[in-house]
Prior knowledge:
By secondary structure, the protein is an alpha+beta fold. The protein has helices spanning 15-59, 64-75; strands at 80-86, 89-99, 106-116. Helix 1 (15-59) runs antiparallel to helix 2. It starts with 14 loop residues before the first helix and ends in a 12-residue tail after the last strand.
Amino acid sequence: MTRCGPPRRDAERGAVTAELAVGLLVVGVVLVLAGWLAAAGAAQVRVQLAAGAAARALARGEDPAAVQQRVASAVGEGARSERADEAGLVRVRVVAPLEVPVLGARVEVAGEAVAPLEAPADPVPVPP
């Protein structure tokens, strides 16, 4: 069987295989980072929702230790929350660590919420 066209050089043999291998590696890294970005977005949503729930709970006068425990269970280990009271408002900031794959770095996602302090409810009168 004879080949049509210019003869192939031996130096070019396997060039397509090498290019495909490099291309697949790049695609793999891009897919891992895209998956991490999706996870980072989900973590941001969880942190923001936890900050809002914590601010409302603290504004109602709930125990800060119980609120912190709920924040940690909603967001994950390593999460911390900070409370600040200012002019009739409760401001809560929740921060959680997030690992970056491939790079081995660690970043933080944060959410903040504000709720007005609620006045303590009047006790329900008991009829005589």
